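Changelog note: in this version the structure field was regenerated for every chain. One regenerated record is shown below for reference.
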Amino acid sequence: MRLVLVGAGGMGKAWLQTVLADPGTELAGIVDLDLDVARRAAADAGVPDTPVGRDAVELAERTGAEAVVNVTVPRAHHPVTTAALFAGLPVLGEKPVAETVAQGLSLAAAAEASGQLFVVSQSRRYNPHVFAFKEQAKVLGELGTLSTEFYKAPRFGGFREEMEHVLLVDMAIHPFDTARFLLDAEPVSVYCEEYNPSWSWYAHDAAAAAVFEMTGGLRYVYHGSWCAPGAETSWNGSWRLSGASGSATWNGDDAPVLDAEGVSPAASADPGDGIAGSLATFVQALRGGPVPMGEVHENVLSLVMVEAAVESSTTGARVRVDDVLERAHARALADERRDDVRAVLEGWSDVRAALTLPAAAPAR
């Protein structure tokens, strides 16, 4: 599978190595607005003769690429992915799906209108421990509460220490998405508070606590901080799931632990590791395999959880997820420039239902 990689920055280099290491893929070219950055990335990876360009569609056509891996900054996700889809190129993109939920809805509609597969790489799902935790959840009977604690103290410097809602926007989408996967449940509402400890080196709130109501009456509770030195958790967080028949815990790094009598979870599948697993399932889908985790329709609700939590923190009120979806849908319609995409959006009488429709068949 010949791929064009779009974005040659830090994450782009990680994806570059992953594409080169996957026996089922071939690097057709590297796209970056700065061609020197693209050339250096190719040289550093040991493939200095790789074609480079500034436009993904043009380079794909020139090199005969069959798909695009979009590792651009979030504000570029919507234009780069839209152009690729309507050029007949399936896309595997980095999270978040787009900069806003409205743009995410536009991309879901674009995937339908173009008939192409668009998958968002929520790479932290691709973890054998997460899959084992999900199997444990299935034997706990009726589920009640899932919680995540995330305490780290990174000193990034640069934009992260200056941005607003830094924890929710830049990091929390990972556990939010994992919670949806573990519970097989979707967000209904959220109440969230953000705050900044007095010793924080961040310009804005770098800690947050959120309680999500999920479908089926479950609760997902998230408490995190990016200025919490000492006894730090895993980058995956520390998890606890409580059910009628017992509990399961996961420290984020090692195998999850089940504490329940008389039950035995099924053996879990091995999903692969991180972005390598994400890439492998994307390629398999394009060869006729099942639609992967993170297909755009399925993925949008993870970004909705982030946007709803930010709104709750800003307004001080409990926020209904369907209200966020309806406002995003109206914004997507108002902003849409393509008639074919707008027609799909206009056909969504129920946005939540539209996001659970079967995904368009992968193009071959």
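Spot check on this record: Residues 359-364 have pLDDT under 50 and may be disordered. The longest strand covers residues 143-151.
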